[in-house]
TrEMBL record:
The gene is Rpain. GO terms for molecular function: zinc ion binding. Residues 60-130 form the RPA-interacting protein central domain. Signal peptide: none annotated. GO terms for biological process: protein import into nucleus. This is RIP protein. It comes from Cardinalis cardinalis. Keywords: Metal-binding, Nucleus, Zinc, Zinc-finger.
Length: 214
């Protein structure tokens, strides 16, 4: 008596385009993963940037798939009421679709992590270049443009990029020491390279400001 309904259930999912919920579910999973970029990177940092053995693709994909399954299940008929997706999707074709979507999400997640790692490496290279410049006894690299040597005089510090700051009794040694100690203190607490800008208020003289995007 149950043979006909079961056959009809399986036939419904053997269409050339796969099960009818496939594209809706895939699209919504992708959108949720993209909108969860900040959450993904937070988890990656908490895992020690991969050092503590977090499996690739295991950070957010499963959570995204489960959340979107609950959303889809509430809107489309025939997806199993309150049952989790692994209990509803018993047909091999359905499971294959789920596996395909999972692998695509894992790939997208890894792209985000790789982009973040490239950004970290670039920040580290910039920081090292700045510290190398500070180590040189005859010059101080501009922390704003990171290209030109600063001109340091007793009453001012300036650069070709436009940096111009009034100072008192400044020397290259003093400036190098200030920059180096500030950079070192920051690097002990944060992996990101800080950024330097020149800032001034309405009545204040220009100052050098160090900030960190993290």
């Amino acid at each position: 008596a149950m043979a006909a309904p079961v056959q009809g259930h399986r036939a419904r999912y053997k269409s050339p385009g796969g099960p009818p919920w496939r594209e809706t579910y895939r699209r919504r999973c992708m959108e949720r993963l993209r909108s969860s970029r900040a959450k993904l990177l937070d988890r990656y940092r908490q895992a020690g940037d991969g050092a503590s053995g977090a499996a690739p693709g295991a950070l957010l994909v499963q959570e995204v798939m489960e959340q979107e399954w609950q959303e889809l299940r509430d809107r489309l008929p025939g997806l199993g009421g309150e049952q989790p997706m692994e209990q509803v999707l018993e047909d091999p074709d359905e499971l294959a679709v789920l596996e395909e979507i999972q692998q695509e999400l894992i790939f997208q997640e890894q792209l985000v992590i790789e982009e973040y790692e490239r950004s970290l490496r670039f920040d580290e290279e910039c920081l090292n270049a700045m510290l190398d410049g500070l180590d040189a006894s005859d010059r101080v690299i501009c922390p704003v443009c990171r290209k030109n040597n600063l001109t340091v005089k007793a009453h001012l510090v300036c650069c070709q990029c436009g940096l111009y700051i009034s100072t008192q009794d400044m020397t290259e040694g003093k400036l190098r020491s200030l920059l180096e100690s500030t950079l070192t203190e920051h690097s002990q607490r944060c992996l990101h390279s800080p950024e330097f800008t020149v800032t001034s208020g309405m009545e204040e003289e220009a100052s050098l400001l160090m900030s960190c995007p993290v």
